[in-house]
Amino acid sequence: xSILADSLARVKPSPTIAVTTRAxxxxxxxxxxxxxxxxxxxxxxxxxxxxxxxxxxDAGKTRYTAPDGIPELKRxxxxxxxxxxxxxxxxxxxxxGTGGKQTLYNALMATLNPGxxxxxxxxxxxxxxxxxxxxxxxxVIVEGAPEQGYRITPEQLDAAITPNxxxxxxxxxxxxSGAGYSRAQLKGLTDVLSRHDHVWTMSDDMYExxxxxxxxxxxxxxxEPRLYDxxxxxxGVSKAYxxxxxxxxxxxxxxxxxxxxxxxxxxxxxxxxxVSQWAAVEALNGPQDYIAESRAAFQRRRDLVVEMLxxxxxxxCPVPDGAFYVYPTIHGCIGKRSPSGKxxxxxxxxxxxxxxxxGVAVVFGAAFGLSPAFRVSYAAADxxxxxxxxxxxxxxxxxx
Length: 400
Description:
The chain has 400 residues and is α/β, with parallel strands linked by helices. Helices cover 40% and strands 12% of the residues. It has two domains: 6-44 and 290-398, Alpha-Beta Complex (Aspartate Aminotransferase, domain 1), CATH 3.90.1150.10; 63-285, Type I PLP-dependent aspartate aminotransferase-like (Major domain) (Aspartate Aminotransferase, domain 2, 3-Layer(aba) Sandwich), CATH 3.40.640.10. Helix 7 links the parallel strand 5 (165-171) and strand 6 (200-204). Helix 3 (71-85) packs parallel to helix 10 (274-285), helix 4 packs parallel to helix 5 and helix 6 (154-160) packs parallel to helix 7.
């Protein structure tokens, strides 16, 4: 008899972590590897945030805190939602977790029963379906095709809803595509959700502040106030403030849901790192200049990568609205032969051969639920991105 739980067989390890690990192994062997698989800013955490963390250490703020966040951070989160999104929450409606992933996972663990369905638009962040499966639910994938700008339509959402639907997971701007929903496009979705009062919305707003070309970010509870009482609005400091390793995410929603999430967290990890919490207070309350500066750098990098990838044989790269990813399709590369002699039957084949042949690590599209494509994270230096795209172009030219 195996010691492992049956539920573990329903999920797979994170493909993005697997690719990043493989790239690191090859680099350790002496290979010249460019890693474009990790989803984290390459900038340093702003100095004022680092100084706040040091001050917290010196002040002895290194002990256990409340399981789901210190009062000061919950207050800062409430102020952020009011300032940026026009949403009013009390501290009792806020949960702070060890990264954005934990808040999402806590909510699913606290609410899903066997047979419950969760609608997940594709392409999706790799963890959404597997977290649903671990929590005992059933992911229902709805594809946002490239010709739809990687967005799903109200008609698709309405058709996917059943009496068993419990959650709709929404992410804009999106990981992996960078696609964002305009206010009008989101209103189309919220109109559908308003007609189905048994469906809750989990809005993952992690890339809120990384948006380009005047794209106006909006979140479901902001666009449709009728959804406020059945929406969990999730965010974090990881992407906006280059704080991925600090591991602070947060969410706000109805008090009974937040209390249930607190119960899950109290019996798993308990509180997030105390020092990181104080750093997050400074991130949310302190100067916000860094956001505009990093956004400008990301937009410059986006334009570089989109232009160079669209010049590659067999690749079509849409222009994303935000985040720091592009999600090009590779229909023109499938079925061709790589320099090693392998026929590229899938986008996983493409990514694997690209890594072996040119030393560029990307994540294959099947990991995100929509193929054939791959994801590039352009959270890297301009020269690194230029070299990576040159290698990708060379690889595409070598296919026969």
